[in-house]
From TrEMBL:
<comment type="similarity">
    <text>Belongs to the ABC transporter superfamily. Siderophore-Fe(3+) uptake transporter (SIUT) (TC 3.A.1.21) family.</text>
</comment>
<dbReference type="InterPro" id="IPR036640">
    <property type="entry name" value="ABC1_TM_sf"/>
</dbReference>
<keyword id="KW-0997">Cell inner membrane</keyword>
<dbReference type="GO" id="GO:0090374">
    <property type="term" value="P:oligopeptide export from mitochondrion"/>
</dbReference>
<dbReference type="GO" id="GO:0005524">
    <property type="term" value="F:ATP binding"/>
</dbReference>
<feature type="transmembrane region" description="Helical">
    <location>
        <begin position="44"/>
        <end position="65"/>
    </location>
</feature>
<feature type="transmembrane region" description="Helical">
    <location>
        <begin position="80"/>
        <end position="105"/>
    </location>
</feature>
<feature type="compositionally biased region" description="Basic and acidic residues">
    <location>
        <begin position="624"/>
        <end position="634"/>
    </location>
</feature>
<dbReference type="Pfam" id="PF00664">
    <property type="entry name" value="ABC_membrane"/>
</dbReference>
<feature type="transmembrane region" description="Helical">
    <location>
        <begin position="182"/>
        <end position="199"/>
    </location>
</feature>
<feature type="domain" description="ABC transmembrane type-1">
    <location>
        <begin position="45"/>
        <end position="331"/>
    </location>
</feature>
<feature type="region of interest" description="Disordered">
    <location>
        <begin position="1"/>
        <end position="25"/>
    </location>
</feature>
<dbReference type="InterPro" id="IPR039421">
    <property type="entry name" value="Type_1_exporter"/>
</dbReference>
<dbReference type="InterPro" id="IPR003439">
    <property type="entry name" value="ABC_transporter-like_ATP-bd"/>
</dbReference>
<dbReference type="Pfam" id="PF00005">
    <property type="entry name" value="ABC_tran"/>
</dbReference>
<dbReference type="InterPro" id="IPR011527">
    <property type="entry name" value="ABC1_TM_dom"/>
</dbReference>
<keyword id="KW-0067">ATP-binding</keyword>
């Protein structure tokens, strides 16, 4: 399919929008993560209270056990024994209830934070210019939203609560241990600095591996998205590359397996060593008590020793969990960093703080006033010195060789790109001054690659106007000469069009796109080679729909087949980004210049007019990036 702009010419200006690290310093990144939870600080405070209460209640149980061993049993006080036993049961029940409540609240808060992140990333990507999507693989974008944020679920739903819960439990347990016997407490905590050092080493290692894992998952997701789409399957099978694609996917998957194994085993032996040492500490405590007795000191009572060992064993779980949580947080920082990279992308095309909101429907006069457009400062611009006026309800055709800047000129009207010099106006108002909503109401775009969602025909048409009635949808389809075909389908307007509309032919998809634009009813219409990919018979059917759509509207047609533009009020020939000729069809034929040469070439069946001085292809650096395969109807 012919394109006005080759796809290999990536815009250098957009390169500045590659994701960059948002915060280099880890403390700054942690502060940014904490700000995500700020809207929910009330519920988090309640979680903190529940955690503190649960930890305090749990710590009471060893003290009750000491009283059982040292007082109730030796003195045979059955009443006291019953009360102590009931107290131990009550502490267990209360602690469990508090745990369930804190899990419910913290999980709710965590899921809300994940929702906020997903929505923020999606909204940010909706604001990004087309150049970003022409150089970013779809699978990479999907991986950031689905895989990266999904992998953060444990962190934002349970890790924060686990951190607070285990920290509170450790502090409460250590205080209780000091209250029982400070000497045994020192023995228990002697190795704590070594444990912390090991955990930090493991955390840094897991963070590095997590970054590698997410990049590999994104690469595999991109491969799946590209090769298992309808277009990818068709290309792979017709080119005999199905087995090769399978081998490439297997290589990607094998690399992911290696990274996943390293991620699972990173620091596993070190953390296991910590667990084994802490599990052996009770034996050290019994030995220490014996040494105290041998040296003539005052050994702890049996009840105190049993209660202390119970506390120490109770300390084992939260302490190891706390160290593991620290390791998990280090790994999660890599995920947060990838999300923050997208949230910090620079948005070049923004709405003014006080945009113009016309109170009435736009008349549709389009003006190009000394317009210059390019992606890189210092390089030759794609468009230079464009001065044009298209009266309201008039028609302009833009023709020229590949790379002349035709599509770039058309995309400046709906502000898919911003001019670098001069201005583009609608009814005398700079498009940069209009609100996005007003601009979307004023301008509709139909490209040669009509994009349809995997939904019903009615839902695809209603995308242009969600409040459209069935009668309005049918009227738009009739105007686009597609109603009869839709009505002949078993499910009519409830027919699912399939992935990218592949249940319909190219001409049918194009007419559906035109019907969608008719339903939107914009006063200005940009047709970007809307029939260039169709056969002659289908083109005639689509052209009838275009004529119906263009009636009464300001129409800018970017044409490759010159047979579609003969009746335009004004025809402009672009060459290397400048206006080479302008006039009506008859005037340009009489001039016998570039347009006449283009017409002769078109009549001979050629596809690229590069003779008779029409103009050579522009340098790759001077052409726009590949257009996305979408119908950009606002």
């Amino acid at each position: 399919m012919p394109h006005d702009t080759p796809h290999h010419a990536a815009p250098s200006r957009a390169t500045a929008q590659d994701p960059e690290p948002a915060d280099v310093g880890q403390p700054a990144q942690i502060r940014r993560i904490l700000r995500l939870f700020r809207p929910y600080r009330g519920r988090l405070a309640l979680v903190g209270l529940l955690v503190a209460a649960s930890s305090l209640v749990a710590v009471a149980s060893p003290f009750l056990l000491r009283e059982v061993i040292d007082v109730a049993l030796p003195e045979r006080r059955t009443g006291l024994l019953a009360l102590l036993a009931l107290g131990m049961i009550a502490t267990a029940v209360t602690s469990s209830v508090f745990g369930v409540l804190q899990t419910l609240i913290s999980t709710t808060v965590g899921q809300q934070v994940m929702h906020d992140l997903r929505t923020a990333v999606y909204a940010k990507l909706q604001q990004m210019p087309l150049a970003f999507f022409t150089r970013t693989r779809t699978g990479e974008v999907q991986s950031r939203i689905a895989s990266d944020i999904g992998s953060m679920q444990a962190t934002v739903t349970s890790t924060a609560t686990s951190l607070v819960s285990n920290l509170t439990a450790v502090v409460a347990t250590v205080v209780a241990m000091l209250a029982l016997d400070w000497r045994l407490t020192l023995v228990s905590l002697a190795l704590l600095p070594a444990f912390v050092w090991i955990a930090r080493r493991v955390g840094r290692e897991r963070r590095r591996i997590t970054t590698q894992r997410q990049k590999q998952m994104a690469a595999m997701a991109a491969t799946v998205t590209e090769s298992l789409s309808v277009s990818g399957i068709l290309l792979g099978r017709t080119m005999g590359r199905a087995e090769a694609l399978t081998r490439e996917f297997a290589d990607e998957s094998r690399q992911l397996v290696d990274v996943e194994i390293r991620a699972s085993m990173a620091g596993r032996w070190r953390m296991a060593t910590i667990g084994m040492i802490m599990a052996a500490i009770p034996a050290l405590l019994y030995w220490s008590a014996g040494v105290m007795f041998q040296l003539g000191g005052t050994p702890p009572s049996i009840g105190t020793l049993v209660a202390f060992v119970s506390l120490q064993q109770g300390l084992l779980r939260p302490a190891v969990s706390l160290l593991s949580t620290g390791v998990d947080i280090q790994a999660s920082l890599a995920l947060f960093q990838r999300i923050f990279e997208y949230l910090d992308l620079r948005v070049d095309i923004t709405e003014r703080p006080d945009p113009v909101e016309p109170g009435t429907r736009a008349r549709g006069e389009v003006g190009f006033e000394n317009v210059t457009f390019g992606y890189e400062s210092g390089a030759r611009p794609i468009l230079s010195g464009i001065d044009l006026t298209v009266p309201a309800g008039g028609s302009l055709a833009v023709v020229g060789p590949t790379g002349a800047g035709k599509t770039s000129l058309g995309y400046l009207v709906p502000r898919l790109y911003d001019v670098t010099g001069g201005r583009v106006t609608i009814d005398g108002t700079d498009v940069r001054d209009l609100s996005f909503a007003a601009l979307a109401r004023a301008v509709g775009v139909v490209s040669q690659e009509a994009y349809l969602f995997h939904a019903t025909v009615a839902e695809n048409l209603r995308f242009a106007r969600p409040d459209a009635t069935p009668d309005e949808i049918e009227a738009a389809a009739r105007a686009a000469h597609i109603h009869d075909h839709i009505a002949s389908l078993p499910d009519g307007y409830d027919t699912v069009v399939g992935e990218r509309g592949y249940r319909f032919s190219g001409g049918e998809k194009q007419r559906l796109a035109l019907a969608r634009t008719i339903l939107r009813d914009p006063p200005v219409l940009v047709l970007d080679e809307a029939t260039s990919a169709l056969d002659t018979r289908t083109e005639q059917a689509v052209q009838r729909a275009i004529d119906a759509l263009s009636a009464g509207r300001t129409t800018i047609t970017i044409a490759h087949r010159l047979s579609t533009v003969r009746d335009a009020d004004q025809i402009v020939v672009l060459d290397r980004g400048r206006i080479a000729e302008r006039g009506t069809h008859a005037e340009l034929l009489a001039l016998d210049g570039r347009y006449a040469a283009l017409l002769r070439r078109d009549a001979d069946g050629g596809t690229r007019p590069a003779v008779d001085g029409v103009g050579d292809l522009a340098d790759p650096a001077d052409v726009a990036p590949r257009r996305p395969a979408v119908d950009a109807t606002p």
